[in-house]
Structure formats: structure tokens, C-alpha cells
Amino acid sequence: MPSYRTQVRIIADVLRTAKDYNEDDGGVGITMLLRKANLSYGRLLKIVSSLVHSGLMEEVIVEKSYKYKISSKGVEFLQAYGRFEEFANTFGLSL
By the 8 A CB rule, do 34 and 44 touch? Predict the structure, then answer.
């Protein structure tokens, strides 16, 4: 049976991509987020909009294009998610 990602896992993947592929602190483009998070364009736009609205990501305009950066609140979320994932794994659970 295939293992599907939860919404929280998808959010963590998007935030991790924004953190890991931030080019010269100018942010990451939507194409990179699409590729690395493995999402459709429409779904990614909804998630990114939600993340920006909640303060987990920041939207910046660089050379007439939108780029996205993880905020300090987003880094805190990733750290907490990582701790919880490790905790769940100790009980044999996967997120």
C-alpha cells in the first residue's frame, strides 16, 4: 500500500526546501519549490499563500519575480517538527 504524505509533512517539505535552497539569501523560486516538494502548481500556491499568511515564510520580489524565504518562525516549526518526528519514530510510528 502506498504511503501518502500528510499535510504537515508537505508543509515541512516546502519549508525545508525554502531553507536549503535559498540562493544568496535572496529566496527560492516557485519552480524550485515545485520540483523539490513534488507538488502540483495549484496546490503549492495554496500552501505557500497559507505559509506566508501565517508568518512561516516571507515573500520577496527579486528582479521582478517572487521569491520565498523561510522566516525565523518557520525555522522554529521545522525544529519542532523534527523533534516530534524523532519522538514518533521511537514508538514505531511514521509521519
Answer: yes
pLDDT along the chain (95 residues), means of 10: 82 95 86 92 96 96 91 96 94 84
Domain borders along the chain are 7-90
CATH of domain 7-90: 1.10.10.10
Nearest of 4, 40, 1, 36 to residue 21 by alpha carbon: 36
Q: What is the pTM of this model?
A: 0.89
Give the list of residues 6+ apart from residue 51 with CB closer than 8 angstroms, or none: 11, 14, 15, 57, 74
Handedness of CA 31, 35, 37, 41 (dihedral sign): positive
Confirm if 87 and 52 have CB atoms less than 8 A apart. no
E strand spans, the chain? 57-62, 65-70
